[in-house]
Write a structure and sequence with these properties.
Pfam families: Glycos_transf_2. The protein is built from eight helices and nine strands. By secondary structure, it is α/β, with parallel strands linked by helices. The protein has a single domain (2-240), classed as Alpha-Beta Complex (Spore Coat Polysaccharide Biosynthesis Protein SpsA, Chain A). It is globular and about 55 Å long.
Length: 244
């Protein structure tokens, strides 16, 4: 769970995760140098949660730090703003147990929904889905959703930036350290020909604070990520002599 100034939300979200049955193995809160009391609230609200600080900056780096710290067989990506329903965690795990490598949350498959998405964002997501599916041969119905789960032993195949690598001196972020992380994961799972199962999910409204989403800027970033990851896939296939 990546966090940055989510103290008020954690007071509600963490107990809800702890109440999930079957019980989760661990909760890892990765803090991005919050300026509120996120860390203190996390430790007070759920004392057995593991609270770590990310090594660089960006959501992608926070996620990679959490992935590396995980000790369980399954990793569930979970937002701290209250938009994700903890009671859906067993459904994601069940999809993996039944044979999936990657359980992809979807607001737009049967049983899914959203209390938060606007018509503009929904339309943009549909367009990006079409591009992704054509480039990677997938059948995603909801590319731009970050509630996902996968087997921890697949991490080496995803080749995410090493959390131990230093922050570039010019202040830039390594590829995969930013908000492109979710699209990068979706692309690399597809490029690796892993088994993907969509899991219906209902997105709630953020409880406290303001979203960092910027419809047009984020949509452009996702499109650039799709193109960059497609080039990466094609280059690797060419180098290995793989032919479609």
């Amino acid at each position: 769970m990546p966090t940055r100034n989510e103290a008020r939300n954690l007071e509600i979200v963490l107990p809800a995760i702890a109440a999930v049955r079957p019980a989760v193995h661990e909760v890892i809160v990765v803090d991005g140098n919050s300026t509120d009391n996120t860390v203190a609230v996390a430790r007070r609200t759920l004392p057995w949660a593991r609270v770590i600080t990310q090594t660089r900056k960006g959501k992608g780096n926070a996620m990679a730090c959490g992935f590396t710290a995980a000790t369980g067989d399954v990793i569930v990506m979970f937002d701290a703003d209250g938009s994700a329903d903890p009671n859906e965690i067993p459904a994601f795990v069940n999809a993996l147990v039944k044979g999936a490598d990657f359980a992809k949350g979807s607001r737009f498959c049967k049983g899914g929904g959203s209390d938060d998405i606007t018509l503009l964002r929904k339309s943009g997501n549909a367009g990006l889905n079409t591009v992704a599916n054509r480039l990677f041969g997938t059948r995603y119905s909801d590319l731009c959703y970050g509630y996902n789960a996968f087997w921890a032993d697949l991490l080496p195949q995803l080749e995410l930036p090493d959390p131990a690598a230093p922050q570039p001196e010019d202040g830039s972020m390594l590829w995969g350290d930013g908000f492109e992380i979710e699209t990068v994961l979706n692309c690399r799972v597809a490029a690796a020909d892993l088994t993907i199962t969509e899991v219906p999910s209902v997105e709630r409204e953020r409880m406290f604070g303001e979203t960092n989403l910027r419809t047009f800027a984020d949509g452009t970033r996702v499109l650039r990520t799709l193109m960059a990851e497609h080039r990466r896939m094609e280059q690797r296939r060419k180098a290995s002599g793989y032919a479609r």
